[in-house]
Amino acid sequence: MSNYIKTGLSTLLVLSVCFLWSTPQYGNRDVPDLMDVSIGYFEGEMSDVEFDGYFDQQRFQISLDLIKTELKDAELRESESSDLTSFLINLYSVELEGMDIVLGDDPIESVGLHLDEFSFAFSDLDWVSSPEDDILEFNSLTGELTIRGLELKLNNEFYNLISMLGGKPGVLEIDRFNAEVSYNHRGRVTLSGKLITPFGKASVDGELLFNESNPQLSRIRKFNLTVENLSDELEALLQQMEMESGMTLPRRGRKIEISFTGTLGNPVLEE
To answer: pLDDT band at residue 129, thresholds of 50, 70 and 90?
Structure first.
């Protein structure tokens, strides 16, 4: 394994742990147990990572050009007196570049995964919990996932299926995938995403008012799904399914456009 490890504390790393406990020396004054851990900034990086081994008589190989993680302004605070744990993070992210995974020795039967880039991040995390009172509350959260240049090499049983969709035989490809979701203390949830493949493109845009006491009544302000640029093979397959089912997907030109409102328990398809 060839490793290059770089750990940077480039701006600030503050790690403070404070424990206070009640003891006879404090007389009748009760001092609650307290834990407070904070990190101002942390960054870690590894490059040119390789692993080759066997698990359950199956060869497993993995290589990474780069893996990087970053943490900004994190705080974990716990107090026994209130039985509450709060967790705050301004930003936490993980990035992978040039990842290859191969399972098996046989060039034909082995399964392989290649990724040009993979990253996920969440920010503005404000989380409070109390296991004793069964409380788990998110006041805010934003998350994002990005994938670029994914190739999943499948074994022979999927060879014809991928060809039927108009893709490279035996290889499932994703050119780009991006999704972002956010939540705030008022229960507003937003969702956006985009998927680009050799078979076609899809995008989604949604907004929901979450009802914590009764999720089924959560109101869908909007949910729009658009599918376009389908391969000829996938377009023909969809048309065949529409003919057999007697149902037609809502379209605008060659685009498929589906919109929902209503509630989670009773979504309404817009005409």
So the answer is: confident
Angle at the Cα of 182 from the Cα atoms of 177 and 187, rounded to 5 degrees: 145
Name the nearest CA neighbour of 38 among 72, 68, 82.
72
Contact 172, 149 (CB under 8 A): no
Structure tokens at 14: 């503050």
CA-closest candidate to residue 189, choices 136, 141, 252, 228: 141
How far from the centroid of its chain's Cα atoms is residue 102's Cα? 23
Please give the residue that has the higher pLDDT: either 173 or 109.
Answer: 173
Residue 84 to residue 82: CA distance in whole angstroms: 5
Which residues, including other chains, have CB under 8 Å from residue 262's CB and lie 6 or more apart?
Answer: 219, 220, 268
| Neighbour-count burial of 197, counting CB atoms closer than 10 A to its CB (0-12 exposed, 13-18 middle, 19+ buried) | buried
Q: What is the DSSP letter of 156?
A: G
3-state DSSP assignment of residue 244: helix
Overall pTM > 0.85? no
- Dist. CA 235–CA 61, nearest whole Å: 37
Under DSSP, is residue 17 helix (H, G, I), strand (E, B) or coil? coil
Asked if residues 259 and 270 have their Cβ atoms less than 8 Å apart, the reply is yes
Q: Nearest CA to 36 among 17, 55, 9?
A: 17
Sign of CA dihedral 147, 150, 154, 160: positive
**At 235, phi and psi to the nearest 5?**
-60, -45
User: For residue 101, what are the β-bridge partners?
Assistant: 62, 113
Amino acid at residue number 157: E
The domains of the chain are located at 1-131, 154-271
- Separation of CA 99 from chain center: 17
